[in-house]
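Bug #77: duplicate submission created two jobs. Keeping one. Sequence:
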Amino acid sequence: MCAIKDPKSGDYTFMFECPMCGRGYRDGQHVYEGRTIGPWQIRICQTCHVMNWDGIVESHQPRLMEHLAKIGVKVDYNESGFIKWPSGYEPPPPTPRQPRHRRMR
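Kept job's structure:
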């Protein structure tokens, strides 16, 4: 984690590294790109949270699995064999895209 000062507003934003994808994301005053998963004692980027709405594939997340094993968390699996999010931390399922309207000429 590191702090970055916005030159325009003077507000500080904090940079975190997502334990799932490894990318950095901002979280702080007026910028909320992350999500705290309390029972797992981690903060992840919003992209990883939303893109894994149906569960987490264990084989794709070795860093997450290592962290959960270290803190002694027993994970639950859904009917598809994916790791379930802790209760109350599930991301919403994606909404179907609205059809684009054609422009009339």
